Amino acid sequence: MANSSCSDVKVLGAWPSPFVMRVRIALNIKSVKYEFLEETIGSKSQLLLQSNPVYKKIPVLIHGGKSISESLIIVQYIDEVWSSGPSILPSDPYDRAIERFWAAYVDDKFFPSMQLINTAQGEEKAAKVEQVTEGLVLLEEAFQKSSKGKAFFGGDRIGFLDIALGPMLGWLRAIDKMGGVKLLDEVKTPGLVQWVESFCADGAVKGVIPDIEKLLEILEKMKGN
Amino acid sequence: MAEEVLLFGVWGSPFSRRVEMALKLKGIQYKYFEEDLTNKSPTLLKYNPIHKKIPVLVHNGKPIAESQVILEYIDETWKGYPIFPKDPYERANARFWAKFIDEKCLPGIFNACWGEEKQHENAVKEACELLKHLENEIGEKKYFGGEAIGFLDIVANFIGFWLGIFEEASGTKLLTREEFPKLSNWVGVFVSSSGIKENLPPARDKLIAYFRSQFGTGSTDATK
């Protein structure tokens, strides 16, 4: 199943969502053309409610009329369907298990710890910063073990765990630039600092994660509210 | 090289039993270590330093944690009985519902059984809405996996067995035959299936007593 027509593959999403970014990056890696249907923040389209009735959330991948939800599940689906393209998950079962473990960690522990760090104040902010930093130190260790000296968790090319974490750190990098915090620290997490630059510069990622200036615009708007 | 498979678990845990079910279905020999969660072994902490939880599978010295991650690993490593469907869409569907069970059903059911008394009615309503999704998903199938037990059946072991335990321990009935005829059927078939029934925790009363001691006697306890 090497090529599908553009109308065959649709992504329901919103560009700022890191979960939606994961799906678009995966499709880019496989060179799959898709129609990007942007949801308006604050309202949910009929198509979204129909295709993800359980959670009513983005992203949703619609492929040949079938809908798939939950970003990491979608990414694995993309890897399995477009199997002739570059692989997203590694081939060794143990390496796959490690990447799945850390991807689950990103969703279950790391991403929740990032919430509202931008708008928090005082003691609450300090506590959040500590939590996120602890998570980053763990992820730095995982990066050193997985990458084995190469550019990405997946080695020479972006893989599953790169896709899972990349959009999150893409946003974190912008939060750091706003000033007031330094989450991605060259001393504590040198590997991740370099990795997030390489990730955001990758061909499959450029255009999905906008330039840092555009992310800053959104963050400023959030802070203003 | 002789293969070494170790499993660190707890006799009453659905997560731990999931891994055992998968290993037994595949016919894999393993060595089991019972953990005391109030006094975790240094070995467990070494093998799962991030979450410090069971189950942990150790295959030839390499540890894997998180029950669903372990199940995927088991299916990819050992051939024989297939746990996952072959079709990518069906695989995605199984993973979706497995995530739903662990992230939504478990906390929802727990809340209905042991949540705050004043929220009890709402919690029961929400838990039943969650179970309705599973009622629709099982449909006319014998198992979630179709004709044979699969990944989603194994993950749904919580619904298959532990839900009944929770109901008895807390006095809150959720899975009624009237409201959930198909899911109730599946429960009956699941717990009597070969490969499953031998791997359910023994000593039902002991398990009920354990949950009561951990979480109390339930939101509807009149003597509270």
From TrEMBL, chain A:
Superkingdom classification of source: Eukaryota
GO BP field: glutathione metabolic process; toxin catabolic process
Species of provenance: Carya illinoinensis (Pecan)
Annotated protein name in UniProt: Glutathione S-transferase
Catalytic activity: RX + glutathione = an S-substituted glutathione + a halide anion + H(+)
Pfam families: GST_C_2, GST_N
PROSITE patterns the UniProt entry points to: GST_CTER, GST_NTER
Documented EC number(s): 2.5.1.18
UniProtKB/TrEMBL annotation, chain B:
EC class: transferase
An example Gene Ontology biological process: glutathione metabolic process
Reactions the enzyme catalyzes: RX + glutathione = an S-substituted glutathione + a halide anion + H(+)
Protein keywords: Transferase
Gene3D superfamilies the UniProt entry points to: 1.20.1050.10, Glutaredoxin (3.40.30.10)
GO-annotated molecular function: glutathione transferase activity
Annotated protein name in UniProt: glutathione transferase
